[in-house]
Amino acid sequence: KNSVAIQEIDYKVTQQKLMPAGINSSLDSELTSVNYLAKSLGREDEILSRIIKVSFDKSVLETNIYSLKDIDPAIEYIQKSTTYKMDFVPNDTLVSEQWALEKIQAFDAWDKTEGVDTVLLAVIDTGIDYLHPDLENKIWQNLGETGNGKETNGIDDDNNGFVDDFRGWDFTDRVGFPFDSSGGDYLDWDNDPMDEQGHGTYIGGIAGAEVNNTTGIAGVAPNIKIVNLRAFDPAGFGEEDDVAAAILYAVQTGVKVINMSFGDNAFSLVLRDVIRFAYARGVVLVGSSGNSGSTTPHYPSGYTEVISVGNSTIDDFIAGSSNYGSTLDLVAPGSSIVTTARNNNYASISGTSAATPHVAATAALILSLQHFTNEEVKQIIKSTTDDVGEPGWDLRSGAGRLNLFRALTVIAPSVIKINSPTQDFATLEDQIIVNASVLSASFVSYSLYYGTGYNPDNWITLIDNEITQFSNQDIYTLDISSLPDTVYAFRLEVQLSNARTLEERVNFHISRTPPVTELISIGPAYYGDKTTILASMTTDEPSLVRMFYRRVTEQEFNFITLDGFTTNNQFIKELHYGFIPRQLVVQNSAYEIYFEAENLVGLTTIVKDDTLNFLFSTRYEAEYSGETELPYSLPSGSIFEDPVSLTTSDLREIYLREITSATVSSLFRLSNDTFEEIDSLDERIVRDFGDFNNNGLKDVLAFFIRDGFIYEQTSSGSSSLTEEFAQEEEDFWPVMAEDIDGDSKTEIVVVDSDTSFTVWKVNNDLSVTNPIKLVNFTEESFGFNIIDAPNGVIADINDDGRDEFWSVDLDGDVFSYEIFGTDDYRQGSVVNTGFIGSAAFIAAGDYDGDGTDELAVLLHSIRQVD
């Protein structure tokens, strides 16, 4: 707390003691270390200097750790480090030109500036391939660690706390994460921020790839320098404290702009404080809005201090996967963006991750011209957008689509900000004071509104067309004593003399009562060869849900938070599910279970089986198939489901996409108990294999995003393939290649639009002809009948002697076409599951041994609970 002297905190660290004199705790003996946050990078700040990182022996019960807050009144909060996932939706369509540069008028903007190398833009990501020819000259070099062998002398020459950090830093230290050594570099902080995943190299190229070097692409800000900060492992996961440390390092280094193309729907107290620290030091923070296509707030982009960026397309539409809502600031090109890729390659990607560096680079170019504040930079970018949605600010596009050229023409920026309440403020008091700043050379008037919900449809006017500007002023006190408990939004709207409006919004919560819960499901669940206890629950407001558990023979309860497949990350949300980790479950034991839901103001609800604890057994009653460890292995990655036979006749080859190069399908051959890589297909994902035209040569059906390709062996027994067919209009997303109508000719089924399939006949030259469209004939629901994954199976489910083609759409309809003969497909059955079928998987087989095939479909619930 603020009342604690800094000297007392220093004493805790130097003496490795957590509890002050006079307070005894059994945890003292279990304490393993007490350190400053991020190795003291934040010690100069009044708030961050009070955050310490404490480690305990792994045997300590977390309930005991959290109980320290009740013992020591000096503790403000206790939080376990959380895990973030990259916000990345791959598209990967290879394009021949950078449409985004023209769309944001970058070529005109470069007449004003291409940036200066004293403006540093930090990319906190999976690292950057600093050997890439389009990036090797763009990576910031730490002069204090460069020259005369300083790069590798093992000495902290510049005394910044990091040894040999001459080209950035790798902050990943995923000790205990369920990965193995084949997963690459992720265990320790080190001075090598090389990208092993690819995402960071994509982002770095968009922001600042070299220009006019006769190679590859041009970055949006080609003359700035990029600070390479790795905080995510080869799978694209990063821990909260690693991200926090990277931000603090960036601030210490003098970075002007930070790009954060990652996030999660839950927010974190520690990361919030670190972001506020960076913002207070003048750093422009830019984050991706997320790729779930929802209005759910997303963090860190949802914090008030961060510019939240959505994804726009070449036609100025808003990508369907782009998150939107009150926390969105603007959109930028993020669909089919060509950029740099690992190992001297190039790729095309999509998502808000790709949109974000366009805005971050724009901020860097603005700061290359003028010394504006971070809030001024934010409003410059928002006030100069192209209005591509509804007139003015709107939920889908925010302030509009980025226009780099116009952003560089502003000489008198505005400041429009709601200073308090901040995003996700929660209260049980009877009033809220709104503090704001409105300053603009083009100011005409401002208005203040509030409404119910994250994204209100109806607004109540609090201040109407007030004509006075102000800075950091209390402008309204809202009486909330009669308002019901829920989430609300404030909306500050400013009218400008150029007929534009600027707008800022924040959400706040009123919560005077404990959260209302609904236990959706609870009970034993099989997890591999063990039984665990699984539960899912909803709360009527953002809350933390803990599942307390103990064996009936034990005295103390332990708990896990219902965070899905992560463990005790303390996520605050409304939809919760989780289970006791398999390594903590004792088999064939009886467990007592109860739940605690805690809302943002600390009010709690206990959930039991009436007045008693729930009681479940972990008895394992399933037959578990035995496993035999084989003497050979493959790299970590995704395997094409069927073995193939290009160079052999006995199916001893496998197509694999390695986790560190997921856009490359590598062909591995098994020989003498060893897999060797013998060939590869770049930017292709194998979908089917066979001899499609019956000429004795093997064929491969592949795709890349929604485009389809057919390859054929150059000669019998060769692994070399020749592309014989390509359809790159996003209307040939292949599902399968086989003779589905019994005419001895191969058909290829593809997704040809959002709501239909097409069946093509394969010719002898591997071209396709005779298209037959199979439309999605099911009733429209919340998913609009969209087919968003190339999944389908052929099976005789109704046992009538005729095969059917089965698939599943976005709103969870499982539907079929009956195959009556050559080119004769008729609408069949529909099963409306009531679940979401987004990226669903469907398979067929005789699962119950009755001689008739059944369908297995992987879905998830509408509200993503179960």
Secondary structure elements and their pairing?
Layout: H1 6-15, E1 31-36, E2 52-56, H2 62-66, H3 68-71, E3 83-86, H4 99-103, H5 106-109, E4 120-125, E5 169-170, H6 199-208, E6 225-230, E7 237-239, H7 240-253, E8 257-260, E9 262-263, H8 269-280, E10 284-288, E11 306-312, E12 330-333, E13 337-341, E14 345-349, H9 352-369, H10 374-383, H11 404-407, E15 415-420, E16 425-427, E17 431-439, E18 443-452, E19 460-466, E20 470-479, E21 486-496, E22 501-510, E23 517-527, E24 530-551, E25 558-561, E26 573-579, E27 590-599, E28 604-607, E29 614-617, E30 637-639, E31 653-658, E32 664-671, E33 674-682, E34 685-690, E35 699-704, E36 707-713, E37 721-727, E38 733-738, E39 747-753, E40 756-762, E41 768-775, E42 793-795, E43 804-808, E44 813-821, E45 824-832, E46 836-845, E47 854-860
